[in-house]
Amino acid sequence: MEAGGRRERRREAAEYYGGQRVPERMEEALNALFPLRPGDLYGELANYLSKYSKTPVICKLVGRKVLDGVGQPTLEVEVYCTVKNYEKRICSTVMSCHSQIPENALPETIEADEEERKDSVDTAVEWVNESLNTMLRDLEPTDQCQVDKMLGEYFTNKVKEKKIQKQEEEGEEEEEAEATLALTPPTPSPPSPRGKNKAAKAGKKLSVAERPIPAAEPAEPVLCGSLAIGGTSLAIAKAGATISHIPLYSHIALLKHHQESPEEISLPLPMVTLVNCEKISPSKLKLVKEVMLIPPVHLSLKQGIERVLHIQKEMTRLLESPGKMPGPQPADSKKGRAQNSGKKSLPQFLKRISHLGCLTTGYDDVEQLLLVMQTACSNIGLELGTDVYLAINCAAHELMDYDKGKYEILTGTFKSPDEMVAMYGELIDKFPFIIALIDPLRKEDREQWSNICCALGSKCYLIAEDAATCISKLKTAQSINTPMCSGVVLKYINQTKVSDLIELTGILDGQRHITVLGSPDGESSDDSLVDLAVGLGARFLKLGGLSRGERVTKYNRLLVIEEELAKNRNLR
Question: What whole-number distance in Å separates Cα of residue 235 and Cα of residue 227?
């Protein structure tokens, strides 16, 4: 009886293995490996047969609260897949946080923003561990389109729920207010001095010569928990690349080009922040937030970054030795060296590295800053406009004094939007080594954006960062719904999905706008942004300075990608 049972099991096993074509494939494997006589026969057998295994599927997502590069809470998403019948951790990603609060915000505003961020991260962790974990289970991590479609639908439903909740809360507040008014007896109010108010208003109208500026557009609302959408989409993209045994940048390029691998890949030019001129510093200059160095295209990335490091070292030496600071010198205006005969006070070097990973200092005007940079380059045998170029992030939205209707470019010095356009024209004519201006105006000053593009569009890039609308609006409009500009800085934040970036960069490419992938203020140690920039074919990559680990790790990743592409002869 026992022997009969064994025979039955053997028969069932033979049918099972035969149905799976195991004997046939084992014979194929042995025949293929015999001529090779591998040292690890069973390892090679496992490798050979693994191509017949089932495609890995997502089995678990794990979200947790971690810290970003400036010590603020952010979201980490881990992806686990079922691989050859075992649960296996594939990868993780840490999201970068972006704050819309300007440097000169009030302490209570900053504190409220930090509390809101904590709540948002807590909600994002809950979404990942509960709803998204269940929703995406058993999907293939290589199916990015389906994953992002489901994430988008989930987010849309959450936005609708929030709107309904807000309407209900407003309705309850109105009912409470009406009940309170019904119980409170009316009190006579003192007459208002109408004549005085009218006179004051009339006087104010007469004192303003310029036409009124457009009001600031409200900041795009950020749904609490939206980090979960962006974090999950990017984590699954990384998992798809890992499962496919290719780098993330190759996976992104395949997704963008409909699974057709480009023969050559070009690397983005780095915009390396050298100096951060804090707008809250005691120095007068407020117009410049960041000064960035752009290496010339004929250098390799490795050579370009080494050149920037030499300039940074010389700048630090000059700033730490006030006696060695340059005096005003006449120079050849052809190379952008302006004549300057007035005495300037020395810049204040704050002797610390900013959160952007660069030197922090302050100046009294733009020309003083540019003169110091010219001197630093000259001291090491380099010339601005030939050996290296400059980009300036003006962050003009932080300069507007809405009471005066003007930009405060220096302490106590104000200019109207039209005057700003004229000022930038003079600046670029005097210093032609400046090849990019980021946010030279607010997004609301659309007429002036058009004017500045007509005046300077052939001389330098005019790029919208804060002045660009959020990615969701850009994608929905199917056009660049920003002021007239040369290009846009895109940031991977909040509910942005990988598919959104792929679609939007395609729109930008079609309209001949340049794409700049930018690093948010609250950067993390995750280096996926670099792979995204390479895979999407971005023209520039704005990562901050060459200090602070969370920023340097991205430059290191860029160097590794350059080495890989050169080795595989795929580098354009």
Answer: 12
